[in-house]
């Protein structure tokens, strides 16, 4: 199979689908130079980078299909996301000033903001975004003398057949996921109009019967969804204007348990895995208990699609030790379940404030790429040392889960998916350093693999193997 990079969490439709509301709502433009095309190429200019440096705001498109193609990314989990109303119905109100600020922060377009503020049904929005992605499925485009296409896949066998060596068309294989099970129709007005279980489970039935069944779904998101409590996730300007406090940190509801069980129901091979990102710590522990008791005769993979590690007593100063990230006991459960952990390329998740400051300073491109890739390497290395110390294979859960176009603050130098080719190169430098130092923090000989293998696993192979087992 062709050696392409993989990303298990990005949002290639978010900006283009949003921009379609300014013209023909829900239409994925076949003209690649239209903002409402999933192929619209929008690399950051100098002012975009300065805005990101100063305010952490990402206006440019990071995971459009052209950037993915330029970056040699051939396998992605495209996360559909009906944006929650509370993201835009916030402390700024819902007037014109609020609309301008919200659009400025997200880049989805003012009419998309208006639509979300007045929306009464997340599920319809989810279906429309899925339809948006389907519209250009398989269509070939020639960009800079190279032919590209994306194909929404239904099985790993289809992935293998598409990503063949020497194919003149660069194909991006897309697996469907979505972020936040509010997308099933929950969380609109939990206090005054609680969701009806029958309707939510009926919507989930529809999803399980889509032509392209999701590989996994992110169970929680930024706000309470009547299914489980969420972890605090918003910082900076967005965290100031949005209120996440309602049911923050709570556990599962009875409705949440019903939805989780239906997702995991494997009747007719239609199980959808659960992504634990954004769940509160309490909810995560309750989910692990559910797996250990109700599914004790199965090995259901645990997915954390995008995040960072909290660290431990030896290295906590490097990381963000907050509930939105993941503790060592959780990383061990992910590994023992043969799951995946996607490293999020977001400054707010990947390193402590002190370590971010230590990483800044250089204006030389090579130094920037080297220094900021070290933050990614530390995530990979922490997990490897932890797994090795517990008698596990050290390198098979770590992968890319960039969260690009998910309103993130990317690590400097790696602005878009196009730069993944450089991330691959610079991670190899850190892996060589680790190898040349004798991998002294590893005790099991079978974990002392070559630097090239480590980076290949992170950038590609671990996702391929996971998909081959579960899709």
How would you describe the overall organization of this protein?
The longest helix is centred in the last third of the chain and has 25 residues, at 365-389. The mean pLDDT is 95. Helix 5 (96-106) packs across helix 6, helix 9 runs parallel beside helix 11 (254-264) and helix 17 (420-436) packs across helix 18. The chain folds into two domains: 1-179, no CATH class; 301-471, no CATH class. It has helices at 14-19, 46-55, 65-70, 85-88, 96-106, 110-118, 122-134, 156-162, 197-208, 236-241, 254-264, 281-294, 328-336, 347-350, 353-359, 365-389, 420-436, 451-470, and strands at residues 5-10, 73-80, 141-143, 146-152, 169-179, 216-218, 273-275, 303-307, 340-343, 398-400. The protein is of the alpha/beta class and 471 residues long. It is globular, with a radius of gyration of 21 Å. 41% of the residues lie in helices and 11% in strands. The two termini are 17 Å apart. Strands 1, 2, 3, 4, 5, 6 and 7 form a seven-stranded mixed sheet that branches. The chain has a three-stranded parallel sheet with strand order 8-9-10. It comes from Solitalea longa.
């Amino acid at each position: 199979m062709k050696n392409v990079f993989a990303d298990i969490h990005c949002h290639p439709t978010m900006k283009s689908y949003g921009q379609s509301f300014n013209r023909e709502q829900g239409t994925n433009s076949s003209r690649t130079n239209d903002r409402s095309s999933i192929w619209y190429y929008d690399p950051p200019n100098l002012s975009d980078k300065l805005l990101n440096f100063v305010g952490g705001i990402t206006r440019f498109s990071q995971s459009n299909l052209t950037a993915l193609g330029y970056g040699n990314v051939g396998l992605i989990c495209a996360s559909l996301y009906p944006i929650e109303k509370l993201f835009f119905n916030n402390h700024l109100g819902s007037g014109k000033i609020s609309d301008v600020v919200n659009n400025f922060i997200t880049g989805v377009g003012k009419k998309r903001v208006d639509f979300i503020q007045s929306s009464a049904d997340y599920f319809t929005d989810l279906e429309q975004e899925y339809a948006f992605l389907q519209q250009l499925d398989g269509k070939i485009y020639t960009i800079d003398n190279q032919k590209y296409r994306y194909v929404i896949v239904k099985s790993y066998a289809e992935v293998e057949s598409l990503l063949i060596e020497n194919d003149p068309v660069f194909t991006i294989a897309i697996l469907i996921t979505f972020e936040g099970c509010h997308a099933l129709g929950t969380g609109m007005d939990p206090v005054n109009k609680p969701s009806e279980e029958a309707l939510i489970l009926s919507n989930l039935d529809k999803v399980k019967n889509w032509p392209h069944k999701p590989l996994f779904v992110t169970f929680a998101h930024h706000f309470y969804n009547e299914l489980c409590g969420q972890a605090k996730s918003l910082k900076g300007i967005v965290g100031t204007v949005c209120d996440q406090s309602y049911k923050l940190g709570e556990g599962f509801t009875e409705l949440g348990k019903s939805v989780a069980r239906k997702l995991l129901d494997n009747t007719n091979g239609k199980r959808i895995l659960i992504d634990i990102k954004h769940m509160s710590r309490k909810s995560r522990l309750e989910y692990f208990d559910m797996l250990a008791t109700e599914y004790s005769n199965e090995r259901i993979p645990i997915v954390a699609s995008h995040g960072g590690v909290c660290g431990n007593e030896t290295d906590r100063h490097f990381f963000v030790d907050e509930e939105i990230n993941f503790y060592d006991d959780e990383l061990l459960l992910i590994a023992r379940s043969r799951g995946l952990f996607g490293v999020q390329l977001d400054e707010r998740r990947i390193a402590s404030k002190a370590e971010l400051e230590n990483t800044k300073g250089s204006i030389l491109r090579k130094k920037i790429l080297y220094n900021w890739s070290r933050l990614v390497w530390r995530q990979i290395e922490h997990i490897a040392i932890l797994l090795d110390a517990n008698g596990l294979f050290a390198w098979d859960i770590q992968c890319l889960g960039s969260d690009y176009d998910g309103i993130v603050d990317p690590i400097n130098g790696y602005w878009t998916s196009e730069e993944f080719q450089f991330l691959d190169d610079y991670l190899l430098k850190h892996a060589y350093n680790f190898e040349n130092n004798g991998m002294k923090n590893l005790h099991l000989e079978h974990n002392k693999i070559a630097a090239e293998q480590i980076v290949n696993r992170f950038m590609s192979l671990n996702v391929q193997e996971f998909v081959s087992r579960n899709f």
